[in-house]
Amino acid sequence: MGQPVNVGVVGCGAISAQYFPTIDRLPGLRLVAVADLDPDRAREAVRPYPGVDVLTVAELVTDPRVDVVLNLTIPAAHTEIALQAIAAGKDVYSEKPLAATAEEAERVLRAADAARVRVGCAPDTVLGTGTQTARKAIDDGLIGTPIAATATMITPGHERWHPNPDFYYLPGGGPLLDMGPYYVTSLVTLLGPVASVIGAASRTRSKRVIGSGPRQGEEIPVTVDTHVTGVLVHASGALSTLVMSFDGTATRASNIEVHGEKGSLVVPDPNHFDGSVLVSGADGWQDLPASAGYVEAGRGVGLADFASTPAGQEPRAGGALAFHVLDVMEALLSSAHTGVAVTITSTCERPPPVYLRPSEEA
C-alpha cells in the first residue's frame, strides 16, 4: 500500500463528527488539519485526534501537506471554499450538494478541469451494502427490466433536532436539496442518468420554530419549497416518482422501491450505508444477503474511494455524478414553478459497482 492521502477539513459543524471517525480508521486517509469560522469549535472537534492542526482556511488550502480538501461547510459556502482549494492546486471532496446552484457547480468543475485537479462529492452512502446489493440484483436480472421506482422521504423538518437549522430553509436547502441528493444519487446508481423531469411543489408554513438547543423557541423564516414531488424519466425509460417533504409527519412507504417486469425490490434508506434489501417472489418478500458494497462503511468512505481512484478515471462519488444530481433537482424545482417538463442537458456515466469488501479497502 502507498502512503495515506492527507486530508484537510474546512467546516467542523455537526456532520464532521461523522466523518472524523471514518477518516481515523481508514488506512488510506490521514486527517492533518482543520479550519472553521469558530476556531474553538475546530479545536473541540479534533480533540480526540492528537496531532491535527487548527488553521485558517487560507492556511489550510495552501498547506503543502494537504492532498485533498474535504469541504464540510454549509451549501452556500461550498463554491467559495472549493474554488479557493482548486486555485491552490488541491483536489476537493464536498459534502452534498456540490454547490447551492447548478451554475455554481459548473464553475467549480470548470475551474478543476483547468487546474487539472479532481472534484468529488457526497453522498457516499450509495457505496454501502444497501444500495449496492440492490444494484447487483438489478444488474443480475433478478427483477427483469426495471420499469419504475418510487422514492419517499417525509419528515416534519430538521428544526426539531438541529440547534441551528436556518440553512435548511434558505436557498440551497429545503427537503429536495438537503435530502434529495441521497435519493436521486441512489436512483441514478440503480437506474442510470435522468433525461427529463416534471414536478410540483408547495410551502406549508412561512416560519419554523427551533425545537432544541440554546435557540429553542426562536422562529426562523422559510424561503424555499418544503414539499416537492415529481417524476424523473431516466434515459433507460424507467420512471421514478419522487416525494421529498418537510411538511408531513410520518410515512409507512418504503424509502425506495424498484419495480421490474419480473419482480420488485425494496431498497433501504439511502441516507444509511446498509439495511435490508427485499425482493418479491413466489413466496412473498424475502431478504437478500449483502452481496456488494463496502461493509460497515461510514461517511468518508467515498472520500477514500475518491482518493484511491486511478488518475484519468471518474471516481464513483465524482463531480460528474454530483453535478447531474444537482442539475436534476434544480430542474425539478424549475418544473414545479413553471408547470412545464424540463429536459436534462447534463448526463453522467452510471458509477461502477462496488464488489463486496471491507470499507478499510476503499
From TrEMBL:
Task: Report the source organism.
Answer: Nonomuraea glycinis
UniProt keyword terms in alphabetical order: Oxidoreductase
PANTHER family for the chain:
BCDNA.GH03377
Q: Which InterPro entries match?
A: Gfo/Idh/MocA-like_OxRdtase_N, Gfo/Idh/MocA_oxidrdct_glycsds, GFO_IDH_MocA-like_dom, NAD(P)-bd_dom_sf
Starting at the broadest rank, the lineage of the source organism is: Bacteria, Bacillati, Actinomycetota, Actinomycetes, Streptosporangiales
Q: Which GO terms label this protein's molecular function in UniProt?
A: nucleotide binding; oxidoreductase activity
All residue ranges annotated as the Gfo/Idh/MocA-like oxidoreductase N-terminal domain in the record? 5-119
Keyword Amino-acid biosynthesis found = no
Q: Name one Pfam family in it.
A: GFO_IDH_MocA_C3
Give the protein name, as stated in the record.
Answer: Oxidoreductase
Q: Which residues form the GFO/IDH/MocA-like oxidoreductase domain?
A: 132-266
